């Protein structure tokens, strides 16, 4: 992690078919607990994690259900960005995604990195 940063950006490329999506949100929530400002940028099949009812399909025991992890993350001030081409390629629109998700390009991710955010990817 960059010295002195209070920001963490997590890139997630895995969707409901992978335990890594649950791990990513567990770590993201841990970052919030640690006092970090956490943003997640979802690409590829990770877009399905924030499709309405999509996150209901995954639970990796002993982790909390993905639905609960994502809901908790957003309620606690976490930020979720969804890659526009990835959303579009799946035929989704903003209205297909859960509340609190912003469809925005990688410039948001790059902006946080330029400000010194630490990064993780799953």
TrEMBL record:
Source organism superkingdom: Bacteria
Cited InterPro entries: DsrEFH-like (IPR027396), Sulphur_relay_DsrE/F-like (IPR003787)
Entries under Pfam families matching the protein: DsrE (PF02635)
The protein's name: DsrE/DsrF-like family protein
Organism: Oceanibacterium hippocampi
Organism classification: Bacteria, Pseudomonadati, Pseudomonadota, Alphaproteobacteria, Sneathiellales
